[in-house]
C-alpha cells in the first residue's frame, strides 16, 4: 500500500510548503450531513488523503457552520438555504450527479460536496481529491457533474483457480486457493480505484463459466460472493455474476436447459431468489451463450430472446438484469468456405429478434464485429437495434494489443469508436449517444469493458497500462472528455507535474496505439498473431483455422472482400452512408482497406503509397518510433519513482524484441509473397 505503483492514480502524495497552506485549512474539520455506508467511504477517503497529503487528521462532525471545513451530504440533508443555495440546485442532474461548491459563511469558508444521492457524494469526493492532487485552487469552486452513461461496468474474466482469461498482470485478486478470497483488503482498494473513476457495476467471474465456476451461484460460494458484494456496495458498485447456461442441468439435475421448459423456468426463479437472499441488491447475470462452445438456447432450437428472457423473468421481481453478450458466431468454420463471414454474425443473429427481449435484458455488443483487434470496423449492430437495450463492450485488457508487455494506450481508439457516426437516425447518430440510451430512449444503457488488472503489485503488469483503466473510467463517465484531457489528468495524478515527465509520457501514450498498429497487422486486416495466446507475429497462424479469421494473402494481393458485389456483403449491414463509404474502394479509409477489400499489393492508397510499400514503411517506422519512446522514457531516469521507472524500462525491452520480430516477419512474408522489393532498400530477410 505504500508503493507508488500500487497506489496507481490515488497517490495522495505529500504536499509541501506553500501549496500545503492553500489546502490545509480545509481539512481541519469535515461535516457529515448524511449517514450511509457510501458516505462513510467518502469520509474515509478524505481522512486517508488528508493524512497522506497534509499529515493532518480532520475532526469529523455533523454539519457545522462555524468552522472552515468540508461538508458532505445529499441535497436533502445539507441545509442548502443556510449557504444561500436553492434546493433545486441538483434538479437537472441524474441520481449519481453532484455539485461541488465553495461558500463563504461569516468569515468561514466551506466546500460543499452535495450529492443527489450518496453515490454523488462519493464521486464529488474523488473529484475534489483529484483537484487537490492536480494543484487546482479550491477558493471558488462551482462544479456540477453527473455521469453520461447509466451503467459503467467492468467485467472480470477471473476463474476460481485464480487464473485470468486474457489476464496479463498476475493472478486474480478475487480467488485464491481455489476459492473466493477472504482477504478483502485488495478487493477494497480495487473498489476505491474503480469508484474513483466512476464505475458502478462489476461482474466478478469469467464469461466462460467452466465446471467449478458453475457453482458460483450455489451455497458453496454465495456466502463469499456476499462478502465481495459488501465491499463493492460501500463504493457504489453493484455486483454481477456470469452464469453457465446449462446450470439447470449441471446444478439442478434437470434433463434440459431449454428456456421454454417450465421446470427450467422454475429452476431459474428459485435460483435467483436464493441469490437475492444473500445479496439483496445483486445486479444480475452476464451471459455468454452459444459462443465458442459454451451452451446456449440454440441447443434447444430456441433463439437468443427466448434464451435471455427466461433469466430476465426470474430476475425481474428483484430488479435484476440480464446482460446478454452478442459475441455469437460459428467458430467451426471451414477456411475453404468463403461465403461465411464471421464479421456478419452478431448482426445476423440479433437484428431479426430486436423487440423480442424483455425490458430488463441488455445486449452487450463488442466494439468491432470480429474481436478487439488493434484496428477493425465498428460493429454495425450498434445502432441497428431500435427496441433493445444495449451496452458496448470494450477490452481494457490488451489481448491483441500487446498484452501489457507492449505499451498501447487505447483511449484514442475508444474515443474514435464512441465518436463514430452510425447514421442510424440520420447524420450525427454517434455510438456514444446510442450507448448512453438517448437515441432509442432505452431503459438501460451503458458501457462495459474487460478489466486489465491482476494481483501484480502495480495492478496492470505494465504500469503505463494503468492509464487504460483510468481512461476507460473517465471516458465512460463522460465520453465528451478529450483524449488529451484524460491523459494529462492521469499523468498528473500518477507522476505529478514535472514538465519533462508530462511531456515525455504524453508523447509515448498518445502515439503508442498508432505505433503498435504500425509494427503489427496492417490496414485493418488483423489476426496475424500466434494462435491461442495471441502475442507476437504469425502471419498464417489463423489462415487455415476454423475461427473465421483470414487475410487471404497470395502472390497478387491481400485482404477480405466484404463488399456487396463480390464479397460477403458485410458492408450492407451499415446504414447507407457508411455502407457506401466502406463498400467503395475510392472512399474506404486507408486504415480499414484490407478489412473491407481484397486488393493487389500495387494498389495505391489515398496516402499515395502502394499497399506493399505501406506495409514496409509502417513496419520499419514502428520500430523506430518505439526506439524514440524508449529514449523518452530513459530521459525520465531520476525524475520518477524508481520502481515504476524500472518496470516500464523492462517492458520496453520486451516490446522492442516483439516489434522487431513483427517487423521482420511481416516484411519478409510479404516480400516473399509479392516479390516486390522495398523501394528504400531496407533490410528484409
Ligand atoms: O477475444 C476472445 C478471447 C476469449 C474470450 C472471448 C469472449 C472470454 O480470445 O478468450 O473468452 O473473446 O469475448 O468471449
How does the major sheet shape up? 8 strands, parallel, barrel
Tally of DSSP helical segments:
20
Which hetero ligands occur in this complex?
Answer: 4-O-methyl-beta-D-glucopyranuronic acid
Category from helices, strands and their pairing: alpha/beta
Spatial arrangement of strands, main beta sheet: 7-10-11-12-13-14-15-16
Helix content: 25-40%
Low-confidence stretches: none
Euclidean distance between termini CA atoms: 49 Å
Compute the average pLDDT.
Answer: 97
Shape: globular
Instruction: Tell me the β content.
Output: 5-15%
Number of beta strands: 18
Using only C-alpha atoms, the radius of gyration works out to: 26 Å
Write a brief caption for the model.
The protein has 685 residues and is an alpha/beta fold.
What can you see in these coordinates?
- By secondary structure, the chain is of the alpha/beta class.
- The chain has helices at 4-7, 17-24, 37-54, 118-133, 185-196, 211-214, 222-233, 247-250, 262-278, 304-315, 345-350, 411-419, 431-435, 466-477, 483-495, 499-519, 576-583, 593-596, 611-634, 642-674, and strands spanning 29-32, 59-61, 69-74, 98-105, 108-115, 142-145, 151-155, 175-176, 179-180, 201-203, 238-242, 284-287, 321-325, 361-366, 389-395, 445-450, 557-558, 599-600.
- The protein is built from 20 helices and 18 strands.
- Strands 7-10-11-12-13-14-15-16 form an 8-stranded parallel barrel. It has a 6-stranded mixed β-sheet with strand order 2-1-3-5-4-6, with helices on one face. Strands 8-9 form a two-stranded antiparallel ribbon.
- Strand 12, helix 10 and strand 13 form a beta-alpha-beta unit.
- The mean pLDDT is 97.
- The protein binds 4-O-methyl-beta-D-glucopyranuronic acid.
- 4-O-methyl-beta-D-glucopyranuronic acid binds next to loops.
- 4-O-methyl-beta-D-glucopyranuronic acid (GCW) binds at residues 157, 165-166, 207-208, 288, 327, 371-372, 399.
Amino acid at each position: 500500500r505504500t508503493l507508488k505503483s500500487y497506489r496507481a492514480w490515488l497517490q495522495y502524495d505529500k504536499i509541501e510548503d506553500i501549496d500545503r497552506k492553500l489546502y490545509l485549512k480545509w481539512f481541519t474539520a469535515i461535516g457529515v450531513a448524511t449517514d450511509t455506508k457510501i458516505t462513510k467511504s467518502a469520509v474515509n477517503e478524505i481522512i486517508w488523503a488528508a493524512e497522506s497529503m497534509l499529515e493532518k487528521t480532520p475532526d469529523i462532525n455533523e454539519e457545522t457552520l462555524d468552522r472552515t471545513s468540508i461538508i458532505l451530504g445529499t441535497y436533502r440533508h445539507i441545509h442548502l438555504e443556510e449557504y444561500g443555495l436553492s434546493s433545486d440546485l441538483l434538479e437537472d442532474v441524474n441520481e449519481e450527479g453532484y455539485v461541488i461548491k465553495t461558500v463563504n459563511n461569516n468569515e468561514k469558508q466551506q466546500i460543499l460536496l452535495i450529492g443527489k444521492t450518496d453515490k454523488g457524494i462519493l464521486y464529488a469526493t474523488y473529484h475534489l481529491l483529484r483537484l487537490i492532487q492536480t494543484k487546482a485552487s479550491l477558493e471558488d469552486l462551482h462544479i456540477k457533474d453527473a455521469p453520461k452513461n447509466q451503467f459503467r461496468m467492468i467485467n472480470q474474466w477471473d476463474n476460481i483457480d485464480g487464473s485470468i482469461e486474457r489476464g496479463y498482470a498476475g493472478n486474480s485478486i478475487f480467488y485464491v486457493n481455489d476459492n473466493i478470497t477472504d482477504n478483502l483488503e485488495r478487493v477494497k482498494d480495487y473498489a476505491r480505484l474503480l469508484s474513483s473513476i466512476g464505475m458502478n457495476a462489476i461482474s466478478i467471474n469469467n464469461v466462460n463459466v467452466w465446471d467449478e465456476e458453475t457453482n458460483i451461484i450455489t451455497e458453496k460460494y454465495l456466502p463469499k460472493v456476499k462478502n465481495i458484494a459488501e465491499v463493492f456496495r460501500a463504493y457504489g458498485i453493484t455486483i454481477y455474476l456470469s452464469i453457465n447456461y446449462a446450470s439447470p442441468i449441471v446444478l439442478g439435475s434437470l434433463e434440459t436447459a431449454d428456456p421454454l421448459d417450465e421446470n427450467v423456468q422454475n429452476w431459474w426463479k428459485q435460483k435467483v431468489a436464493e441469490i437475492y437472499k444473500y445479496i439483496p441488491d445483486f445486479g444480475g447475470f452476464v451471459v455468454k451463450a452459444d459462443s465458442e462452445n459454451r451452451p446456449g438456447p440454440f441447443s434447444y432450437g430456441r433463439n437468443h430472446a427466448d434464451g435471455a428472457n427466461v433469466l430476465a423473468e426470474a430476475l425481474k421481481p428483484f430488479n435484476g438484469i440480464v446482460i446478454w453478450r452478442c459475441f455469437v458466431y460459428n467458430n467451426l468454420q471451414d477456411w475453404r468456405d468463403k461465403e461465411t463471414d464471421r464479421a456478419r454474425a452478431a448482426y445476423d443473429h440479433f437484428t431479426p429478434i430486436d423487440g423480442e427481449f424483455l425490458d430488463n435484458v441488455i445486449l452487450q455488443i463488442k466494439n468491432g464485429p470480429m474481436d478487439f483487434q488493434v484496428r477493425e470496423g465498428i460493429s454495425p449492430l450498434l445502432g441497428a437495434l431500435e427496441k433493445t437495450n444495449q451496452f458496448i463492450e470494450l477490452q481494457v485488457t490488451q489481448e491483441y494489443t500487446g498484452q501489457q508487455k507492449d505499451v498501447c494506450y487505447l483511449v484514442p481508439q475508444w474515443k474514435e469508436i464512441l465518436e463514430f457516426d452510425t447514421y442510424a437516425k440520420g447524420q450525427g447518430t454517434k455510438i456514444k449517444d446510442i450507448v448512453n440510451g438517448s437515441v432509442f430512449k432505452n431503459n438501460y444503457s451503458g458501457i462495459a469493458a474487460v478489466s486489465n488488472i491482476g494481483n501484480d503489485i502495480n495492478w496492470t503488469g505494465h504500469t503505463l497500462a494503468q492509464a487504460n483503466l483510468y481512461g476507460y473510467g473517465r471516458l465512460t463517465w463522460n465520453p465528451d472528455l478529450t483524449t488529451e484531457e484524460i491523459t494529462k489528468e492521469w499523468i498528473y495524478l500518477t507522476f505529478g507535474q514535472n514538465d519533462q515527465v508530462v511531456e515525455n509520457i504524453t508523447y509515448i501514450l498518445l502515439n503508442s496505439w498508432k505505433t503498435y498498429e504500425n509494427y503489427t497487422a496492417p490496414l485493418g486486416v488483423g489476426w496475424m498473431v500466434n494462435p491461442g495466446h495471441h502475442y507476437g507475429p504469425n502471419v498464417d497462424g489463423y489462415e487455415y483455422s476454423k475461427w473465421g479469421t483470414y487475410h487471404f494473402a497470395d502472390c497478387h494481393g491481400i485482404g477480405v472482400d466484404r463488399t456487396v458485389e463480390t464479397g460477403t456483403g458485410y458492408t450492407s449491414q451499415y446504414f447507407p452512408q457508411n455502407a457506401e463509404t466502406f463498400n467503395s474502394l475510392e472512399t474506404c479509409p486507408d486504415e480499414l482497406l484490407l478489412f473491407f477489400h481484397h486488393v493487389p499489393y500495387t494498389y495505391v492508397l489515398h496516402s499515395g503509397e502502394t499497399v506493399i510499400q505501406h506495409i514496409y514503411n509502417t513496419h520499419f517506422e514502428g520500430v523506430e518510433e518505439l526506439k524514440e519512446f524508449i529514449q523518452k522514457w530513459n530521459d525520465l531516469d531520476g525524475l520518477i519513482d524508481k520502481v515504476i521507472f524500472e518496470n516500464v524500462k523492462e517492458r520496453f525491452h520486451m516490446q522492442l524484441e516483439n516489434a522487431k520480430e513483427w517487423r521482420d516477419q511481416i516484411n519478409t512474408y510479404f516480400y516473399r509473397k509479392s516479390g516486390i522489393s522495398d523501394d528504400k532498400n531496407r533490410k528484409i530477410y
